[in-house]
Amino acid sequence: MYKSLADICMACEKDNLFFWEAVQKEDSVEQNISTDEHFKMMKDLYLAMKSSDDKYDEKLKSTSKLVGGEANKVHKRRMEKKLLCGDFCGTVMEKALRISESNACMKRIVAAPTAGSCGVVPAVLISFQEKEALDDDTMTKALYVAAGIGGVIACRASLSGAEGGCQAEIGSASAMAAGALSYLLGGNNMEICHAAALSLKGLLGLACDPVAGLVEVPCVKRNVIGAVNAVTSSDMVMAGIYSKIEPDQVIDAMKNIGRCMSSAIKETGTGGLAATPSGKAIAASLLK
User: Fold this and answer.
1) Model confidence over 198-216: pLDDT tens digits?
2) Is the pLDDT assigned to residue 1 strictly greater than 90?
3) How many CA atoms are closer than 13 Å to the CA of 203, on its beta-carbon side?
4) Per-residue pLDDT tens for 237-249?
5) Residue 170 pairs with which residues in a beta bridge?
6) CA distance to 21, 192, 249, 279, per residue, from 187 (Å)
7) Which residues contact 14 (CB under 8 A, 6 or more apart)?
8) Structural domain count of the chain
């Protein structure tokens, strides 16, 4: 596994590879399978993401009844052309809710990189695929880009809310999606890495404070924030705006911030929104 985004870029330059190819090559060796086998495996993951979106059930509620049906509300407003953010970002919002709601309702999802952040990457990628009519092989290559970024974050910092707060989950997913989207937009390796950096920078310090200890409130709506943040970060980079802090150093900063966080806001459900009167009331009502 690559230990830095800079290492991926160096491998690309050394062996004349695309970003996605460098990630695929390294992981194929690690898993001791051919690159063709590995590509099929990754494509199956992307197809599973699409299935999670396709099989969304607007009538389904989570066991707690806190989650379900809200993606359809965004859909209706989007169809009425009332969303200020426009159709593409509206679609991204809707899909982020669809897939993260499906997770809360115990349907099949792909942890990308975690179950709690499962809506971010597919919301961005599937929405762009639909917009541009791209094939699944192209999207699989973008998923490799996302995976490479996620792998570096896992190596240098953490993907766990319990260890690093929600910045490690939604923040990491947002960085992965931003890099993958920049690749699809024709971005070079530097632009891929800086899109990830800008996206992660925007969510540094994000607390993990699930109400009643469930991956529902505020987790589902944070998937929307992470997905839209990825789109705006990619747009900034493709406009020529880069991170003043080197991408790998942004990841290191996330790790250091996670270490400074109180345990109360790292998935324990004892601080942040979980500790508000409303949060406590919701938790108490679920015990009845």
Assistant:
1) 999 999 999 999 999 999 9
2) no
3) 32
4) 999 999 999 999 9
5) none
6) 15, 6, 21, 42
7) none
8) 1
Interatomic CA distance for residues 66 and 82, integer angstroms: 25
Q: What is the extent of the structural domain holding 39?
A: 5-286
User: Residue-wise over 194-231: b if at least 16 C-beta within 10 A, else e?
Assistant: bbbbbbbbbbeebbbbbbbebbbbbbbbbbbbbbbbbb
Q: Of 211, 200, 122, 123, whose CA–CA distance to 168 is shortest?
A: 200
Give 81-87 contacts, CB < 8 A, sequence gap 24+. 85/228
> Which pair of tokens denotes residue 250?
């942004």
What percent of the chain has pLDDT above 70? Answer: 100
Span 4-20, pLDDT tens digits? 999 999 999 999 999 99
